[in-house]
Amino acid sequence: MTTAHDDARALYTELTGRRPDGVWSAPGRVNLIGEHTDYNDGFVLPFAIPQRTFAAVGRRDDDRGRVRVSSRFASDPVEVGLDELDRLFPTAPGASPAVPEWAAYPLGVAWALRQAAPGDGPFRGVDIAIASDVPVGAGLSSSAAIEGATASALDELWGTGLDGRALARIGRRAENEAVGAPTGIMDQMASMLGAPDTALFLDCRSLETELVPLGIAEAGLAILVIDTRVKHAHSTGGYRDRRASCERGAAALGVPALRDVSVADLPRAREQLDEETFRRVRHVVTENQRVVDTVHTLRTDGARAIGDLLIASHASMRDDFEISTPELDTAVDTALAAGALGSRMTGGGFGGAAIALIEKDAVETVSAAVNAAFVAARFAGPHLFTVTPSAGPHRDA
Ligand code: GAF
């Protein structure tokens, strides 16, 4: 049992004076490879991490049909009527949510779940208390973890009976339409469908999935997360711009999505696109191919052989998609110089974390090298920890 689990329970009791009906949790994720491919209908290969978000939830015994959410991220609880949800959401494109942003995640899930299963039947007011040990703003999907924990709890308490895929779609709808972040579906699918020791190979067009064994520990390896502690947000500038470039590129090339462009099409695309849009397109097209190649390599040669694909992915994000930062580049370059087999930034970029695939007994040397490089560059100290592919959502109590 983690601290965040106890914290969510304690917060619930502070809020209500009672014990919750249950505590549900969902994990954050690391994306092994496949960045900014999800909203281009492409491929991704994330895995769920041990860090989780916990939602302690209980039915209210008044008949007010209200949802009250409270979080360790904020001091004051937010309370709204179930019927008010339809007036609060969707948030107008580009506008801020009508509730504090942290509360738009769980309340957006409650809204989207009611929309997906309309009627008066199972919906009753609930109190929700949230605590998390997924670092916020680190590119490790703290938001998908809140959505996953809340969706799992409400699905059970409201008896909507949706499966993991459907609950991932609910989470994405909350993120896109309640919070107003124009993200793809990778994070919610990774959080809802992740499983121990495997990565989730996801086709973001069909939503078909395959769990691919990673065999990291068996190969004597570890995955080190280097959280640069430069916070990022997807509801703002850079992420939105990159998405718009991809849509422009697909339209100019006459395809529904960049998924429909192959590496062999790139020379022709270069003639049709301006230089910057071409580089954005080249990142997505080559990254899709790298995901497919990584899955193939994992199956044929194992985790030890995927290092060069991770390195190429980072170079593409740094040079073509331009979403890396000096801190992320320093993390990646230093990890590689200290012997990592592969390293890349993970998540949406503009801050957040990098990952490094390293020998299990090199955790201390690589960490020391990264810490020293950050001191030398006068960056804030990074947060370093290893992760193992872990379980998806469950009810913890
Ligand atoms: C963020 C988004 F939420 C995902 O949908 C995905 O686009 C990712 O950035 C980049 O691969 O995590």
UniProtKB/TrEMBL annotation:
Site location (Transition state stabilizer): 29
Cell compartments where the protein resides: Cytoplasm
Residues annotated for Mg(2+) binding in this entry: 143, 175
Enzyme Commission code: 2.7.1.6
Pathway linked to the protein: Carbohydrate metabolism; galactose metabolism
Catalysed conversion reaction: alpha-D-galactose + ATP = alpha-D-galactose 1-phosphate + ADP + H(+)
Active site feature: 187
Keyword annotations: ATP-binding, Carbohydrate metabolism, Cytoplasm, Galactose metabolism, Kinase, Magnesium, Metal-binding, Nucleotide-binding, Transferase
An example Gene Ontology molecular-function term: galactokinase activity
Binding site for substrate: 35-38, 239
Domain GHMP kinase N-terminal: 105-194
Binding site for ATP: 137-143
Zinc is among the record's keywords: no
Xref: Gene3D superfamilies: 3.30.230.10, GHMP kinase, C-terminal domain
Domain annotation Galactokinase N-terminal: ranges: 11-59
GHMP kinase C-terminal domain segment(s): 305-375
S-adenosyl-L-methionine as UniProt keyword: no
Matching HAMAP family: Galactokinase
Family in the record: Belongs to the GHMP kinase family. GalK subfamily.
NCBIfam families reported in the protein's UniProt record: gal_kin (TIGR00131)
The protein's role, per its UniProt record: Catalyzes the transfer of the gamma-phosphate of ATP to D-galactose to form alpha-D-galactose-1-phosphate (Gal-1-P).
Protein name: Galactokinase
Natural source organism: Microbacterium aurugineum
Lineage of origin: Bacteria, Bacillati, Actinomycetota, Actinomycetes, Micrococcales
